[in-house]
Amino acid sequence: MTSPLNDSDEDDVITGVRDARRLKAVADADLHGHMADLDLDAVVATLRLACASPIVVVNIVGPDQQTYAAETGIGAECTSVPDTLSFCAEVVDSGEALTVPDAAAHPIYSQNPMVLTGAIGSYAGVPLIDNGVVLGSVAMFDRGAREFSPEVLDILRHQGKLAGSVLALRRSARMDALTGLPNRVLYGDRLAGAVARLERNGGMVCVMYLDIDDFKTINDTFGHGGGDEVLIELGRRLVGVLRPTDTVARFGGDEFVTLCENLGSVDDAEQLAARVVAAAAEPWEIQGRSRTVHVSIGIAVTDSADIEPLELLDEADAAMYLAKSVPGSTSVVAPAPSTES
Prior knowledge:
Blueprint: H1 20-29, H2 38-51, E1 55-62, E2 65-72, E3 78-79, H3 87-94, E4 98-100, H4 113-116, E5 122-130, E6 133-142, H5 150-172, H6 184-201, E7 204-212, H7 215-241, E8 247-252, E9 255-263, H8 266-281, E10 284-286, E11 289-291, E12 295-302, H9 309-323, E13 330-333
Parallel strand pairs: 12-13
Antiparallel strand pairs: 1-2, 1-6, 2-3, 4-5, 5-6, 7-9, 7-12, 8-9, 10-11
Organism: Cryobacterium tepidiphilum
Protein name: Sensor domain-containing diguanylate cyclase
């Protein structure tokens, strides 16, 4: 049953376990099991102590998958329960709180694997919301049937909002305020992860380092407001022409960096760079006036998990400065980085 917990301040949230927009937001959040985040751990500890619940989770919900950013009583980073039998998946699908006082007697949740083993007897959960997206749930379980009191449910509701605020602060610290793109910190995490995955997945990783030619002239001509318009629009164009799985980040000023995984060859990287050049060549209107904008792109590609991520970034940066010596928008591929010790 849904409960009177449903007083969320956010009316138009994105729900649905398998909704593509929600799944992208989950991926972009870069959350994982047992994050050791002190604030999320405090949310779990508060609910365990204040509500006398042996199992409490901050659950990031994926298709048939539950990933516990913080938990007590589960003892695992994640579990795999079909969406149709998952309490938390129902919270994500509906965007509403859920209480199940007697799971063993429930026509659906009685078949949940943890209910069948007697590990769970009751459930109460609220949506975990950040930036208008239901990423998962904050939930507590008891081992037997339990009617959760209004006071306990009120604590759960407030702790659910607190967990959402923790994620919002984490996101803002890892995003560029002007463009809404990942910043240097988040990009660095993703680059390190992409390089590490090469050992398992193979393929190639491409870094493109890009800046706007003569950006100072744009600022001098149109003012910083006009310059900001260009930065925001360029970020939008980059996201639009690259793949949904690629990362576009702004490092500051007029510097943008992309991260592209699972490429088959250097030619694939050059084709992506050509898309960026074509996007920059589209007409620009800044404060009602037409203007040509050129970009210089440095490309670095590797298939080695042994390379230092910052070395790959430095190679792309150096190649970008070579590209700036060529008039108009262009790209230059860096020599393959050496991995010899």
